[in-house]
Amino acid sequence: MFYLLYFIIIMLIPLWAQSKVKNAYAKYSRVPSSTYRRGAEVAREILNANGLSHVGVEEQSGYLSDHYDPRTKTVRLSSENYHGQSIAAAAIAAHECGHAIQDDQGYAFLRFRHALVPVANFGSSLSWVLIMIGILIHLSGMLLLGIIFMAAAVLFQVITLPVELNASSRAMDQVVSLGLIRNVEERETRQVLNAAALTYVAAAAVAVLELLRLILVYTGMRRND
């Protein structure tokens, strides 16, 4: 019964976070900003104001596919946010520019996350294979190795939190100081950014809970050896 409840909880946490994002985005993508700037224009103005005229702004297909690519130094905005003049479009464009500013300034957590990418990718792809083998054949050493690989992927999720929260903080500072939104729109802009941050909080929480559960499985296996 306990494990059933646990698995229901870890499935519901990300679903709840995703629903908050979708609801906030759906609501504020219908609310035009008072400056009527498109998301692409918001991004361009923030980047230029921070000496990042070399960073490109491109349209990206897909729903909420917005991201910053540090390899090509490009802010990519989904079509709706690239062309949209809504508060949601401005908030998301500013958030991705926050990552570009982090990259330019050598933000420590961002650099650490970039360094973890190959380790996290390797760990996430291999960890569950080792974990399942360790559990099925009751081999605690194999399980421990899988947990170690999984810990690298979990660390990546945890490090992502300050990176995303800092990008949102920078985004708010930029849209306010540059007059890209009015004072009365700060609350709505912050709601969009906070809702987006919930997805990363949920992902990190689920990852940490799973890691702790597997550590308990390992300690139980060791006691029975």
TrEMBL record:
Query: Which protein, by its recorded name, is this?
Result: Zn-dependent protease
Q: Which organism does this record belong to?
A: Neobacillus massiliamazoniensis
Q: Which GO terms describe its biological process?
A: proteolysis
Entry annotated with the keyword Membrane: yes
Q: Where are the transmembrane segments?
A: 115-136, 143-163, 197-219
What keywords are annotated for this sequence in UniProt?
A: Hydrolase, Membrane, Protease, Transmembrane, Transmembrane helix
> What GO terms are given for molecular function?
peptidase activity
PANTHER family according to UniProt = MEMBRANE PROTEASE YUGP-RELATED
